[in-house]
Predict the 3D structure of the following.
Amino acid sequence: MLKDALTYEHINPEAVGNHRRVLVSELSGLSNLLYKAKEFNIDVNKYGTETRKIIKQIKELENQGFQFEGADASLELFLRKAFGQYEDFFQLKNLKIILEKNEGDEITSEAVIKLLAGDQVFHTAAEGDGPVNALDNSLRKALTEVYPEISEMHLTDYKVRVLNGTEGTAARVRVLIDSADSLETWSTVGVSENIIEASWQALVDSVNYMLMKRQLKGAEEK
């Protein structure tokens, strides 16, 4: 594919309104990673030991339940971090989820977040229809002052899959989140035995991806 796409494709996908998509999974090799890095405009050393180490890390994450072939945004963030071409936009200091239910009443959810963005510490709380919605609302509330552009993004889909059902309620889960703004759509993934932790991973990737794309776009326009 890298040398000559016609050795694999009988027709150029753009000729029929489609596009080429190379996946990265536990079966991927060096060529897949190099193709995705080029697609993301990430500068890598083609034959470096670091590149092969990153492939090994991806395989280990896939074996844990991560599915990067369905979450390109999380994959791009992972690669940029691995190759030292990314800095976090915020850091979590503390997170608390409060659920309350009385007999005969609906359950209420509140998320309290303390995080560092730049040199500022933000401590906010927000309610939601459920713990994940409260988490999303609290995160946005904490970051809006520093990154007002996140008000332009919204979640379009939220999917949970149990990975090892034999463990019952202690099973590991994979959370996939689809997000969108006025420019594009993207997907992120999180995996954990705790559904809140998995959701947090996917939410953080979703916000960081959007902020990173806006940052790169701004740098290109200068």
Observations:
- The chain has a mean pLDDT of 85.
- The chain has five helices and six strands.
- The first helix runs from residue 30 to 39.
- The helical segments are 30-39, 49-64, 72-82, 131-143, 195-221.
